[in-house]
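Course assignment 3, question 2. Fill in each field.
Student: A.L.
Task: Predict the tertiary structure for the chain below.
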Amino acid sequence: MSVQSRPIEPSPTAGRHADFAARLKSWQARIERELAARLPSVDAPPSRLHEAIRYSVLGGGKRVRPALVYATGAALGIDESKLDGAACAIELIHAYSLVHDDLPAMDNDDLRRGRPTCHKAFDEATAILVGDSLQVLAFEILANDPKLPKDANVRLELVRLLAVASGTSGMAGGQALDLAAIGRKLSLAEVEEMHGRKTGALIHACVAMAAACAPQLSETARRGLDEYARAIGLAFQIQDDLLDVEGDVAVIGKATGADRALDKPTYPSVTGIEASRKLMHDLHARALAALDHPELDAEPLAAMSDWLVLRKY
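Answer field:
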């Protein structure tokens, strides 16, 4: 079964979130349409670069980050159309990071989402240019999208949040720590620092950027969303680490055992599988508790957290 056609897994609390599978499928379809509309056409030069861009972005995937933007919007009563630009920008940053992380100089992966990685399908130079192009396109969308808030201060905050989450204090810094950690023994705190930047920062930005589009939100509600985002960011990474140990390549769409082969420190390698799983569920519980606020409709974000900790791909 391809990554694109894989059925959505039901929430582990199906009675509480019975409509989540349909909602998630709708968000995934929505972001696919929105991304396709914003990416450059293969008919325009340089056509090979544009082909590689569309190959890398529209190749399926879980679309966790855009779904989290929409779920936060649902929790705050924000219309989805007003969040499309933010959702696309975040997913483009994520897509660029995958293209660059897959390169031989980084993780040297041949398979992504069940098919050849960008540098294998095209070439390394093109893959570098794909990542560069996607990064700047993300910020162009935040500047120009007509449905995002008109307030210049809100636009600037969206740019700031995504830039911080992408840079050395976020995703890029986390990748640097990850590469430097190969072959070393790290403490749990060091692993959390690494993954809090590499994965958690962009997950946090999904929630924070949607919240920035609700300027009337109280500070206490923002703190609750902040706690939720930080907890699920780490929980999401722990599940990724567990899937690299226990996952089925036919289901997750990429090779397993890569972290072990590269001698990378992960949650399971530092604390063991069972302790990692317990920590993941503790973080899930912390995320749910953080949603207890009268300004928030907790259901969409609670269902999102449920899905993230029990996903199989």
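Instructor remarks: Residues 183 and 263 are 5 Å apart (CA to CA). Strands lie at 111-112, 115-116.
Grade: pending
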